[in-house]
Amino acid sequence: MSTAASPSILKQPKSVWAVAVAATIAFMGIGLVDPILPAIAESLEASPTETSLLFTSYLVITGAAMLFTSWLSSRIGVRTTLLAGLAVIVVFAALAGLAGDVGQVIGFRAGWGLGNALFISTALAAIVGAASGGSSAAIVLYEAALGVGLATGPLLGGLLGSISWRGPFFGTAVLMAGAFVAILVLLEKPAQRPVHVPFTAAFRALRVPQILVLGAVALFYNVGFFVLLAYTPFPLGLDAMGIGLVFFGWGLAVAVTSVWLAPILTARMRRTRILLGAFLLLAAILVAAAFLVQQQAALIACVIGGGLVLGVLNTVLTESVMEASDLPRSVASSAYSGIRFLGGACAPPIAASIAAVSTPGAPFVFGAASVVVAAVLIAVFAPVVARIDSAGPESPEVEAEAITLGE
């Protein structure tokens, strides 16, 4: 985290607080459905493979939309993009809560993914633009909001899911509606018009070898990430509240290492070395989960341990993308996100299908193998991405953007 934290962190305009609260709620949505996956499967008579498509539809649309968000926000403005994203989430979260079968939930989660892409791609720009007396303190507040959202999402999902699997969806709709009103009332339109970004900018960015390599690395890494996040609730054998507590610990671990540990490591080590070591450590944790899948306490330890590694990887990878080329950060991160979410989208149903025809531990082996591929890519193409090792310390804005887009 930036060292610019000071007592003025709490002395921000109401507009900054409005965006920070909205960001907290938006990031709750990442882990919100985790605790209710088994309940949805049971209530809607769906298989684990069908239920896991809740992540697939969400991530496919999020990734596809990220290719265009920098272009859209440059045309309609950050404030309008934020409001559009929040409105879309409200509508589709409520519809998901009203769904009558798993296919409808899957479809409505896709709409939710569109809203989340619009919001998370512009929230940082909004909070920096609204900050007074320098942006560093506001960025610290923003990072804290993301950490709180990532950690409390599964906990809220567990609490509401213990009442009904529909509860987390309705809860999100209500919270996001409140965030929409707060942004509408408190966040003013910026005085300056944004610089226009070409429609094809993100696609052209994929021609840059560094961006393409790091995108491929992130694709294989995200398979392991979402095997841990989306498949583990099934073999855990806990109720919604129990799963919520486990993934509260997971989210807290991700938040702590992404905000605090990742900057410490990048100040002392080359990014390629950090990535290589963290990939191999994550693969080892996934292999351990495969062998310990029948031992509940050990599997929980693997989830929390995996979260510690994931936080570092998310932030360091996204920082690397921003430093890998001379492209504008928003364009580079949009192109990168469009690729990496494909790995997250395919992992949950593949993992569930493997478990159905093999053993409960087999999906973790699949996830570990994919993460090893990511490590191999980093090792083989280290000369291509060498620029990420020569970059200096990140500014607070770059660090916060890396945490935002990394999660």
Q: How would you explain this protein's 3D organization?
A:
- The protein has 407 residues and is mainly α.
- It has one domain (12-406): MFS general substrate transporter like domains (Growth Hormone, Chain: A, Up-down Bundle).
- 79% of the residues lie in helices and 0% in strands.
- α14 (296-323) packs antiparallel against α15 and α14 packs across α18.
- It starts with 13 loop residues before the first helix and ends with a helix.
- It is a multi-pass membrane protein.
- InterPro entries: MFS, MFS_dom, MFS_trans_sf, Tet-R_TetA/multi-R_MdtG-like, YfmO-like.
SSE topology sketch:
Elements: H1 14-31, H2 37-43, H3 48-76, H4 78-98, H5 102-120, H6 123-130, H7 136-161, H8 167-186, H9 201-205, H10 209-231, H11 233-236, H12 240-268, H13 271-291, H14 296-323, H15 329-357, H16 362-380, H17 387-390, H18 396-406
Helix pairs in contact: 1-6, 1-7, 1-8, 2-3, 3-4, 3-5, 3-15, 4-5, 4-8, 7-12, 7-18, 10-14, 10-15, 10-16, 12-14, 13-14, 13-16, 14-15, 14-18, 15-16
GO molecular function, one term: transmembrane transporter activity
Pfam family, one: MFS_1
Protein name: Putative MFS family arabinose efflux permease
